[in-house]
């Protein structure tokens, strides 16, 4: 990747939302370059779980100095979701555990070089501290998120589900679903994962995808061609 491009990654927009299911929880969304990846911080009781700190790790970290980061987790190992992790972790003077779905560990080491999008990313992700499997739980303060293994976009893609919220990475988008033409992608497997989400997520679940606007499971069940 060209050195010149490395400074081009930044936060495009930043928004805050109080969880309608639980007023003690809020979600901060950071949209980052180069392909408008959504990065999230779920905050409860002054503690945050950070999901997919995208390409602009240091800049996102600067916006989260008012909370204690309990862990950083990525929904999958693609460069646009993970390449800012090193800069993010280096921005704090305390140790933050870094977690990834077990089957995507291998993607972290080549997140930049393996990118076939031809886009500038900052860095490969560091070695994870935690390899997640289905049923594992991650905390943001008093709130717990269950790890759902949702392969198809990549082998180790995960969805985090809890407190009436779901962080769906590149598995499920508003009106669409993840691409399956990258290495490790498989459309039949993705279909199974989407079926799993249909059964598992309550209709009033607020869905936060890896790209694009948030939605609800109910809306997707009625309008998303990948779920109908
Ligand atoms: Zn992806």
Any chance you could write out the topology, listing elements then pairs?
Blueprint: E1 11-18, E2 25-32, E3 37-44, E4 47-51, H1 57-62, E5 68-74, H2 79-82, H3 85-90, E6 98-101, H4 105-108, E7 130-132, E8 137-140, E9 143-149, E10 158-162, E11 165-169, E12 172-173, E13 176-177, H5 187-200, E14 206-209, E15 215-216, H6 217-223
Parallel strand pairs: 4-5, 5-6, 6-7, 11-14
Antiparallel strand pairs: 1-2, 2-3, 3-4, 8-9, 9-10, 10-11, 12-13, 14-15
The structure holds zinc ion.
Could you list some keywords that capture this structure?
6 helices, 228 residues, 18% helix, 6-stranded mixed β-sheet, single chain, globular, alpha/beta, binds zinc ion
């Amino acid at each position: 990747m060209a050195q010149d491009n490395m400074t081009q990654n930044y936060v495009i927009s930043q928004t805050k939302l109080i969880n309608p299911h639980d007023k003690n929880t809020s979600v901060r969304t950071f949209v980052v370059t180069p392909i408008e990846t959504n990065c999230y911080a779920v905050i409860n009781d002054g503690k945050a779980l950070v999901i997919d700190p995208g390409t602009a790790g240091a800049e996102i970290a600067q916006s989260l100095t008012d909370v204690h980061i309990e862990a950083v987790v990525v929904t999958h190992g693609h460069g646009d979701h993970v390449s800012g992790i090193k800069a993010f972790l280096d921005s704090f003077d305390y140790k933050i555990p870094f977690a990834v779905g077990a089957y995507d560990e291998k993607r972290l080491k080549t997140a930049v070089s393996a990118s076939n999008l031809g886009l500038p990313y900052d860095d490969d992700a560091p070695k994870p501290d935690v390899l997640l499997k289905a049923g594992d739980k991650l905390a943001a303060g008093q709130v717990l998120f269950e790890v759902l293994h949702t392969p198809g976009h990549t082998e180790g893609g995960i969805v985090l589900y809890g407190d009436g919220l779901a962080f769906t990475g590149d598995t499920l988008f508003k009106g669409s679903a993840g691409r399956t033409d990258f290495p490790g992608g498989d459309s039949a497997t993705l279909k199974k994962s989407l079926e799993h989400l249909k059964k598992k997520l309550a209709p009033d679940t607020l869905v936060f995808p890896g790209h694009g606007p948030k939605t609800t499971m109910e809306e997707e069940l009625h309008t998303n061609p990948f779920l109908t």
